[in-house]
Amino acid sequence: MRTNLAAYSIQVEGEDTTYAMGVEDIKLESINVAIRDNKLIKTGDAAAKNNLGAKHSKISYKFPVVVPEVAGDQPPGFALFLGCGFAEEKNGSKVSYKPASSELDSVKHSYHMDGNAYIQAGSRGNLQLEISKDEYPMISGNFTSLYTRPFGEALPTDYNIDAFSGESLPVTHSNTSITLQVVESATLVEVELHSFSIDMGSKIVFRNNIGTPSVEYTGRSATGKMVIDAPDIDVINWYEIHELEKMISISLEHGTGPYLYVDAPMVQIMKVADGDDDGIATLELDLLFTESTTGADDEIEISFKDKT
């Protein structure tokens, strides 16, 4: 059997709309499906057969961010955020994704590979966003799902990925900008950015309770990293910002219209590490994303819209 992915779609459970994803549209770079991630129960006899316990699936993949051609359209693949403790909000020509603390969704993954179908429901997971110079902005994800045995099925005839049009652009100085601000002093900070990454920090557990097995979301703690050219300390002292626990805000813009925006209102520098790139000193900043106020659910906002 070949291992070519013919079709992949996502459905937010409880809704009718299915979001198609395909290698032609979003350049799905990698996918791994561990259909049977089971707990082995031993009888105590080394020679005896093991019994299979909790059955569930592990799914991971990676794909570049595609900014929709029309502002307000959902970007391909971002329905996955709804299975990661995020909520989607549409407001005119803007669509945004922010953390949520209630009414959390799960998603169903449907794969068709070479005449075999893999339908994994009740799925929740965690996503990472990576933005690096001269690379496409990338989304990678790891999901846990309820187990469903694969079965033979031809590729659906109504599989349609035409709704997802757009272009993934590599990150360059001409299409990407970032603004940092020290919150307490409203001081703007200019940086020479190498990379910026966010781990959404969704905590997911599989629970094989008697009655109804489930995949549950138990919390979040978003972290990240930023690598920049090391500035003169007289200009901006990142060691001082770290030691005095000063908060910064981050706003990143990418694209040529519509645009990808990443905004974080209150970010703490958890560690500062020296580095080197092409013989030029760099700093690696470990980040912790926090709410502007307790319960605001606004530590990260990822949005697609026209220029503000």
Compact description:
The protein is mostly beta strands.
Percent helix range: under 10%
| Helix count from the secondary structure assignment | 2
The whole-number mean of residue pLDDT values reads 85
Number of domains: 1
User: How many whole angstroms does the radius of gyration measure?
Assistant: 21 Å
Oligomer designation: single chain
Beta content comes to over 45%
Q: Label the overall shape.
A: globular
What order do the SSEs take from the amino end to the carboxyl end, as H and E? EEHEEEEEEEEEEEEEEEEEEHEEEE
The first-to-last residue Cα distance is: 50 Å
Structural class: mainly beta
Low-confidence stretches: 22-27
What summary fits the major beta sheet? 18 strands, antiparallel
Number of strands: 24
